[in-house]
Amino acid sequence: MADSHSQSLIAKHAMLDARITSETRRPMPDEIVLHALKKQKLRIKEAIARLT
C-alpha cells in the first residue's frame, strides 16, 4: 500500500514539475499560478520524505 502511495506521490510531483516548467516558458508566466504549483510540489515532496 505504501509503495503505491509513494509512487502516486512521485507521479504527482513529476506532473507538477512539468506544469511549472510549462508555465515558466510562457511569454508572461502567471506568478500566482506558479506560486500555487510550487507550494503543491513542496507539500508532495515533504509527504514523500515522510514515507521514506
List the SSEs and their pairings.
Blueprint: H1 2-24, H2 31-51
Helix pairs in contact: 1-2
Please provide a written account of the structure.
This protein is an all-alpha fold. It is built from two helices and no strands. Helix 1 packs antiparallel against helix 2 (31-51). The longest helix is centred in the N-terminal third of the chain and has 23 residues, at 2-24. The chain is elongated, with a radius of gyration of 12 Å. The relative contact order is 0.18. The mean pLDDT is 94.
Nutshell version of this structure?
The chain has 52 residues and is an all-alpha fold. It has 2 helices and no strands.
Q: Name the beta content range.
A: under 5%
Mean pLDDT, to the nearest integer, reads 94
The N- to C-terminal Cα distance equals 14 Å
Strand element count? 0
Number of alpha- plus pi-helical segments? 2
H-E order = HH
Global structural class: mainly alpha
Helix percent band: over 70%
- Give unreliable regions as ranges: none
The largest sheet, given as strand count, sense and whether it forms a barrel, is: none
Radius of gyration: 12 Å
Overall body shape = elongated
